[in-house]
Structure formats: structure tokens, C-alpha cells
Task: structure prediction
Amino acid sequence: MIIAHRGAKGMAPENTLTAFRLGLTQGCEGIELDIHLTADEEIVVCHDMTLDRTTNGKGLIVEKSLSEIKTFDAGHWFDEEFKGETVPTLDEVFDLVPDNIMINVEVKYAYEGRIERKLVEFLRRRNRLSNVIVSSFDHKCVRRIKQMESEAKIGLLYQTALLDPTAYARSFDVEVYSLHPYFQMLDSEDVLKATESGLYVYPYTANEVKDLLKLTDFGVTGIITDFPGKLKALLQDR
Ligand code: G3P
Ligand code: CA
Result:
């Protein structure tokens, strides 16, 4: 599965509607995005906790209302041609992305559990639990989400070379759906053991041809990439 990281992040401003649209045009089968909570408890799509790097605004997202966040430009920093983009709400992204495209929602920060409750309510309201994976580096957070909603699919993000990722995932008292390792820390044995145990494996974030080919040979379920079009072309050539 080709998964567009923050949209087609390599060619458009990350986590914007234009980046997601471009990922879809390039043939992605999944979209990865990051979420945060605003002061008025709306879920918005942005990687950082602050607006500083990817918009012309400043400060913590959680200290601003959605209407204030919407006044900032989220495209110009990447290139003049993307001027006018705004930080999207999760609703806006779900309106854009067809139901057959998997959405991987990464929870960046739990906001004392508030974002988890909001997200579960959101996924129920949108009737989208079956084709969404909720992942996080905060494994207690995704565990709470699964405890709240048994239909939720949860994924474990990790950056280190775990001794036995499958045993770790299977040690949870709830069902873990997928592993999301940093691609450099993954080996073929990990992938085989995980997939044989029924876990899906989505490494992040591979962009070089040699890495994309290596991960494909490992038999991963999907690859999270900034260049979905490149991965699509590679897979077509094989
Ligand atoms: O979900 C995979 C990947 O996006 C995790 O790292 O920093 O790009 O959010 P980051
Ligand atoms: Ca992410």
C-alpha cells in the first residue's frame, strides 16, 4: 500500500488539502496525517504543536481558536504557488478523501486524553472506523482509544530497534492492528514474524528508491512516503 506522508509532502506543503489531493492524484492508497486540538476543542491537521514552522502564525495550537488558526497561511512557507492554503480540520480532510482510501491518523499529543475522546466521537460520527488506523508514539494513548472503542484499529509507532516488536505488540491487553517502525530499524525477520502473527507493518518515512525497493522485498504491508508517485512508478515497473 502506498501511503502519502502528510499528503504528498515532498511536493506540496505538508498536511494541507492540496498535499492530500496531490497524493490521491499520484495514486496513493492511504494518507498519513497528524492531529492536534485547538483551544475550542476542534481537531486540526498539523504536525507540530505550534504554528511557527508551517504557517505564518505563531504559538501553540491549543491556545488558539479554530477561527484564529484559519486566518493563517499554511502554504506560502513551502512555495509562493501554495499561498492561501489553511490548516485543515480533520472534517475537511475526511470530506476530501474517498472512503476506499485508508487514513492513518497520528495522534501527536494526548492533551490529557481530550483528543482521544474527540477522535473516537469523530470516527463514530463519520462512520469511518473500519478504514482508519490511529497511530501514536504514545502507546498508552492508542491503548486508551482501543479501550474506548473496540472497533478502532490502533498502530504502534516506534523509532528504536525493538528486540521483538511482535511480542511487544502481542503483550498488550487490547488488540494491536499494526506496527509503524522507523524504516531504518526494520529487518525482514521483524516483518515476517509480524505478518505471520496477523499484524500489518507500515514503516515510515522512506523516500529513496533503494529503501523503497528493500522494504517492498521485506514484504511490508505499506510504505509511508513523501513521494507516493515515485513509489507508484517503481511498483508498476516491477
Ligand atoms: O506516522 C509516521 C510518521 O509520520 C511519524 O513521524 O514525525 O513524520 O510524524 P513524523
Ligand atoms: Ca506523522
Notes: Strands lie at 2-5, 30-37, 43-45, 102-107, 132-136, 153-158, 178-181, 200-201, 223-225. The chain has a mean pLDDT of 98. The first strand starts at residue 2 and ends at 5. The first helix runs from residue 17 to 25.
